[in-house]
Amino acid sequence: MRYQTRVIDLRVGEHEYRIRALKDLQQFHDPDQAAEKLGISPSMWSLFGQLWPTGLQLANEIAVRDIAGKRILEIGCGLALSSLIAHKRQADITASDRHPLAEDFLSQNSTLNGLSGVPYKHLEWDAQRDRSLGGFDLIIGSDVLYERDHIALLANVVKQYAHAHAEVLIADPGRGNCGAMNTAMRADGFTSSERRFSIEDRPVLSGRMMRFQR
Hints:
Blueprint: E1 5-12, E2 15-22, H1 34-37, H2 42-45, H3 53-64, E3 71-74, H4 81-88, E4 92-97, H5 102-112, E5 120-122, E6 136-142, H6 150-161, E7 162-172, H7 178-187, E8 191-197, E9 207-213
Parallel strand pairs: 3-4, 3-6, 4-5, 6-7
Antiparallel strand pairs: 1-2, 7-9, 8-9
């Protein structure tokens, strides 16, 4: 292993969790060009392995919602904290990402927290629907609106995998693409609402917990 990691101890809701993350943003290891072939550049490689503030906001949201028995899909799961919480709370969760190490980190973090059997799916947002996945009651994600073209791709995932009366939760630090996401989701028949939250030491409530329902 040519990248370095650290273990983060944190409390979410009523439980303590241990999450293995990359040591910092300088980590990189792609000897077989697996990430490069997926279009993940060296500058973006380490992003999946960080515990971001918006990811913590999503995790706290999942820790208090009534989700037992619900089918949930986490997109861009990264370190999969929200998926682990959902699994612990008896939800039928599937974690998904496109980074070649995401599944391995999910396995490690499951073991650290005494959990097992969290399903994982490598999911390309522009791919045709994988019918083996079925449909979901709730689709969740954080830090998934990096680029403008991610809006249409994310809307495609929702269209393919959301049940008729599904809910979608997207946590975003306020990068500027939230308005376009609202427009795309309303065009697909969703109503929208949001809750603002602070990001680190910023003086304004720039973060958004976006909720879509139909």
